[in-house]
Amino acid sequence: MDDFFHSIEFYTLALLVAFALLVLIFGQREKSMPSTYIQAMDLEPGQDETGELTLTALDDGTVRLRHSGMMLQEGDTVNVVATLADDSLSMVEKKGRKSPLTGTEQPTTGSTLLKFLKEQQYEVRYESEVTGEWRLFTFVNRSGNVKKISLKY
């Protein structure tokens, strides 16, 4: 039996067990299937064209998303298409039209409530097809947390 611990078979077996343990410890975690949500933004006239994105974590776990400085005409609509997979969140603003456009573009602020997020940290990619701007950032959904991101360079 003492010769077994000095044999090639023992070291081969020990190496295989070590690799199996490494795979179990550091192996790829199974990601959940992504979920997609479409949120309509409430639009109101804005005062500035600063292009600022604000995420505010509310007490019930909901996140208020606010985008100021969008240049829109009366009759334009904006939806946020959010895709969530584990701690990865991708949001894309898409512009639509509910009636014929009238007037000129005016600074507009859009806001919506994201009710599908858990209290955790998210890696966020935000893209606005309305303004052509995008950002990558981290957001922690914990009550009272506010994150402001400038979309203008």
Question: Which characteristics define this entry?
Answer:
mainly beta; 8 strands; 57% strand; elongated
Describe the structure in your own words.
- The chain has 153 residues and is mainly beta.
- The chain has one domain.
- It is 12% helix and 57% strand.
- Strands 1, 2, 3, 4, 5, 6, 7 and 8 form an eight-stranded mixed sheet that branches.
- A hairpin with a 2-residue loop joins strand 4 and strand 5.
- It is elongated, with a radius of gyration of 24 Å.
- The protein starts with 7 loop residues before the first helix and ends with a strand.
- The mean pLDDT is 89.
Radius of gyration (Å):
24 Å
What is the tally of helical segments? 1
Largest sheet: 8 strands, mixed
Q: Structural class of the secondary structure composition?
A: mainly beta
Number of DSSP E strands = 8
Q: Averaging pLDDT over every residue, what do you get?
A: 89
In sequence order, what are the helices and strands, one letter per element?
Answer: HEEEEEEEE
Shape, principal axes of CA atoms: elongated
Number of domains: 1
Uncertain runs are: none
Helix content: 10-25%
Strand content: over 45%
Report the span from N to C terminus. Answer: 71 Å
